[in-house]
Amino acid sequence: MNKYVEKFVNESAALTKPDKIVWIDGSKEQIEALRKEACSTGEMIKLNQELLPDCYLHRTAVNDVARVEGRTFICTEKKETAGPTNNWMQKDEAYKMLKEIYDGSMKGRTMYVIPYSMGAIGSKFSKIGIELTDSIYVVLNMCIMTRVSSKVYDALGDSDDFVKGLHAKADIDEEKRYICQFPEDNTIMSVNSGYGGNVLLGKKCFALRIASYQGWQQGWMAEHMLILGLEKPNGETKYIAAAFPSACGKTNLAMLIPPKEYLEKGYKIHTVGDDIAWIRVGADGRLYAINPENGFFGVAPGTNEKSNPNALASTKKGTIFTNVCHNLENNTVWWEGLDKNPPKKAVDWKGNPWTPDTVDADGKPVKAAHPNSRFTAPAVNCPCISSEFENPEGVPLDAIIFGGRRAKTTPLVYESKSWENGVFIGSIMASETTAAAAGAVGVVRRDPMAMLPFCGYNMGDYFAHWLDMKNKSDKLPKIFNVNWFRTDENGHFIWPGFGDNMRVLDWIIKRCEGAVDADETAIGFVPKAEDINIDGLDINIETLKGLLDVDKDMWKSEAEGIEEFYTKFGDKLPETLRAELESLKANLAK
Ligand code: OXD
Ligand code: MN
Asked: Ligand 1: which of 246, 248, 376, 433 to mutate, most ligand atoms within 8 Å of CB?
């Protein structure tokens, strides 16, 4: 046994005092035994094995249903390292405070030791983590979301290069819930939660917060991005990475099914990842991306046969559902937006009896599934999983896309004028908030590169790191921005979205190939309306022109918002970005 792993386990056990320690090896037998145990205690419910083989349902505590950004901390020696956008705790004080909470928290429970690899085991781009947890739900989810295996110890050898994660459910006490990252120590401590994003430590805590810091130190990038391959009729595949805030459609875009007109010509989309990309400069100077995960932790509500048949197909076996509705008619699951056929007899996400007529004390319909209910599905289930999914070298990126939910202001798509301008566009991203994090929904907030909740260090340094990629590569991908969410005067989405987003990807690839022209505007290059293919769509060219419109007055007030946001960073804001803002303002004044 690696002596550093042993020390970590021993010290953590001395602190949390579990009754026993179980070493997870990821084997089928072990997983099956844990499923049985979880069902025997009510922690999980075994679903209809004919319709949903190896699928289970879990309900979290009602006060524990989303990531808690207010209780997520970057713990470093100095506040400046964490920067103005993160909650910060001085790391020694954080350890001291946390140790009191963890003390004895696993008494009467089992501590599981999970060895996992982010990225293919043994690849030079992969990183190793050890998560200790007292939750079988966490073990089983980690076995889907990451590569869990005792082979990880072989890959680790006698090195201390792994991320230590300690998770304890404790009492699921909201007041003492902490999700703490210690990037300087490769350590994560998560306590008093049992919800996915807070406790599956390989995901947000490691693959984004800790890894973004590692990337900064080591010259690579960890980003909140999907990765897809767009195969053209000639068989050539172009790769795109796209950053959108949580619950803004990354999974849907990653698994897009092209419209009929495109399918007939032979276009295909291949999914490499739906949430996280680790990006490095390859030997040929291009940027290469891997998806460090091994599964999808997708938002269930709204996922259906039409919006994302590939995601739905991915959930048909070996999947854990969290906080969805339990359909008692056939022991399966249901959620709002799955179909128009809600079960007549069901249990809602809180564990209460539910029918389509159930209303609350104010007479309002009660939701069967929580808006942030999730499926944890193995990536291999996905019908359009890319043949490059396991490629340890990753895929070469042709384009990077940023995007958010904006009812107004941001056009359907535009292209940056340069890498620097593209970094500026990423840094000013703004989006209406969703149910993925606790707090108000629908409020516009700045979420640079969709990394606001996930950047493990000072975002001023993060922007500089992005700009610095220009010094590492002379073959950088082009940067674009998209917005699928513009609404009309009645609040209805104008652009059909989903599979039809292919039409925008098509334009993006054509721009990468220099195959179409564009109009230069104050904010960047906008398509000529006739270059977006609307054949077969219920949208006319005038509507499309409206979607592409750049309203200078709106952008002037946007520029004021950016200016205000930028003041947060003080002298950590790279001069290049300040110059980009000045040039935007000058363009708008013209
Ligand atoms: C996620 C999130 O779960 O971003 O991916 O919240
Ligand atoms: Mn995410």
From this structure: 246
- Written as one string, the DSSP assignment of 330-381 is TTEEE-TTS-S---SSEE-TTS-EE-TT-B-TTSPBPPSS-TT-EEEEEGGG
How many domains is the chain built from? 3
User: Does 55 participate in catalysis according to the annotation?
Assistant: no
Dist. CA 74–CA 47, nearest whole Å: 38
* pLDDT digits 0-9 by tens, 23-44: 999 999 999 999 999 999 999 9
Domain shared by 238 and 341, yes or no: no
Residues 289 and 312 in one domain: no
Q: 173 φ, ψ to 5°? A: -85, 115
180, 248, 325, 384: which is the annotated catalytic residue? Answer: 248
Q: What is the extent of the structural domain holding 214?
A: 3-42+69-219
In a domain, 357, yes or no: yes
Which pTM was predicted?
A: 0.97
In angstroms, what is the span from residue 247 Cα to ligand 1's centroid? 7
pLDDT digits (tens, 9 = 90+) for 93-132: 999 999 999 999 999 999 999 999 999 998 989 999 999 9
Pocket around ligand 1 at a 6 A CB cut-off: 67, 197, 246, 275, 297, 436
